[in-house]
Design brief:
Distance between the termini: 16 Å
CATH superfamily: Gcn5-related N-acetyltransferase (GNAT)
Radius of gyration: 17 Å
Bound molecules: coenzyme A
Helix content: 40-55%
Number of domains: 1
Order of helices and strands: EHHHEEEHEHEEHH
CATH class: Alpha Beta
CATH topology: Aminopeptidase
Strand order of the largest sheet: 1-2-3-4-5-7-6
Largest sheet: 7 strands, mixed
Number of strands: 7
Length: about 220
């Protein structure tokens, strides 16, 4: 693994069902090539809007990398049936200016742990065979990749969950909840400032820089 990691100022936490719009805006900001890599074919804005609006219905767990109040990368963990079973699907997207900074690798660690904690044994990541970055981050997590009809299916076999793995996710969710509350209150005060002066307030990057000091759970 190269030394470029942890140069970013944001935080990684789960998104709440009320944050669908941030999820949608992130997907809409993906450029043409990233959209094709993410969805395995070219997708329009309306496709993305429809997909994002179903985030809550799918019962997906969505980890987000958030900087300055904006979602810049996500990892989605989706169950394949109505309930969590042995198999699940994962998908990743990192915006252009944020790629190759280690964010995808961090997000994959969270997804593997969340999958493990729900008893998932096989995690499928359907991605194009030309997607070397995706293969690189999957291999960093000791994934086995098998090729089928030109697509790469990354099959990860997470080890069984243990007490520490479950506690780590629970503790991180508590911190994530506080961060989400801070994001809401910051958005409110920004709104008030805009109403009062007609100019924008701070971007909040100072706050994000501060919360980055919160130690991330081991193995996350
Ligand atoms: C694929 C994606 C999720 C990876 O996220 P990321 O934050 O850019 O990944 P990271 O920075 O953690 O790691 C990327 C690794 O790929 C390596 N890499 C980059 N280009 C590469 C290439 N052509 N061949 C092999 N490895 C390559 C990098 O060196 C890095 O490894 P390192 O940390 O050991 O140096 C992101 O690029 C993305 O969202 N792409 C568009 C959408 C997509 O492809 N989604 C996946 C579909 S499920």
């Amino acid at each position: 693994m190269s030394e470029h990691h942890h140069f970013w100022d944001g935080v990684i936490r789960k998104l709440w069902p009320s944050e669908t719009e941030k999820f949608r805006d992130h997907l809409l900001r993906l450029d043409k090539d990233s959209r094709r890599m993410r969805f395995a074919h070219a997708v329009s804005d309306s496709f993305i809007e429809d997909y994002a609006s179903r985030m809550n219905d799918m019962g997906a767990i969505v980890y987000a990398f958030i900087e300055g109040g904006e979602v810049r990368a996500v990892a989605e963990l989706k169950k394949l049936g109505d309930t969590w079973g042995q198999e699940a699907e994962a998908a990743f997207s990192v915006e252009n200016g944020y790629q190759e900074k280690g964010i995808g690798t961090e997000l994959m660690g969270r997804v593997i742990r969340a999958a493990r904690n729900r008893g998932v044994h096989h995690l499928f990541m359907s991605c194009l065979s030309e997607n070397r970055k995706m293969q690189a981050i999957a291999l960093k997590h000791e994934a086995d990749l098998r090729f089928e009809y030109g697509e790469v299916i990354g099959e990860i076999v997470p080890i069984d969950s243990d007490y520490f793995s479950i506690m780590a996710e629970a503790m991180e969710d508590r911190v994530g909840y506080l961060l989400a509350v801070l994001d809401v209150s910051r958005a409110r005060s920004k709104f008030k400032k805009l109403g009062a002066t007609g100019t924008e307030g701070t971007t909040g990057s100072d706050k994000d820089a501060a919360v980055q000091k919160v130690p991330l759970a081991k193995g996350a």
